[in-house]
Prior knowledge:
It is a single chain. The chain is α+β, with helices and mostly antiparallel strands. Helix content is about 45%, strand content about 20%. The chain is built from ten helices and ten strands. Strands 1-10-4-7 form a four-stranded antiparallel sheet. A four-stranded antiparallel sheet has the order 3-8-5-6, with no helix packed on it. It starts with a strand and ends with a helix. The model has no long low-confidence stretch (mean pLDDT about 95).
Amino acid sequence: YKIVLRSTEIDIPAGDGDYAVGASYRLPVDVHVLGIIPHAHYLGKRLQGYATLPDGKRQWLIKIDDWDFNWQGDYRYREPVFLPKGSLISQHFTYDNTAENPRNPHSPPQRVTYGLQTTDEMGELWLQVLPSSAQDYAILNRDYGRFSIEENINFYQARIAADPLSASDHTKLGKSQLALGRQEQALASINRSIELDPNNGEPYYLLGMVSVQNKDMESAREQFEICVKNQPMHLGALNGLGMIALRKQDLPVALKYFSMAERADPENDAVLYNLGLVLVRLGRSQEGVPFLERALAINPEKKSAAELLQRVRAGSR
Length: 317
């Protein structure tokens, strides 16, 4: 499982020789750390990663006192490092933005902020960890998933601060806000994205999902249709239109959209199941069976597909 600690609020004044950033994540389960990747650019000075164990002791994961961007890489431990539940994994990076730093890309030094270019700065610590069981994996995935979305919000807010006219970043910020149930904030971000680029499909899909959450299916249909007009192979909007038609028992329209969604992504088990279901309900069971079989081949745990397939084979719908 991949865990990333990321500092996006980087703003290093010219002449600052010991600017520091950090981030932390508390483990909800036991893990073994298998590998680690620190990342900064030319102003990186000291890069540290460590865990504070539940008993207060510090377990070092990586410590680089003289960072060199040209020697960056990933590191794997000879023996996995065990970290018990409750351990706080921390990233602590410092930066040297002075003329004394021979790697400083700016002469004379100038203010440097977060960004993806090497003349900007970044601060990331990637860890590859192995939970002790499938149950622990699920707990970690759920807990870190929420943490990661929070980090994404910080990330896209930092990018928007650097480039307020990036429609794509406003869309991604809105999507992350929506994932955490922050609907009012999400709508502001999504609508700003549409103002900047009205021809993109994704923001309209997100507006459609807001309407679904608010149980306004007519508004959802309208937004999904605009999305598909702008982006004809948008999987989510096509599937959404199919689901709305299925809900209204408009099976021919549902078949149309699910068929389009299957062409957009032939390996999506949810779409394959929906397509098989509509064909069965239309009395075209033999045409639906291959789609149900494909859905099960991709996701053997999909009980709805297995149950429907069993009923079809037993001769009932």
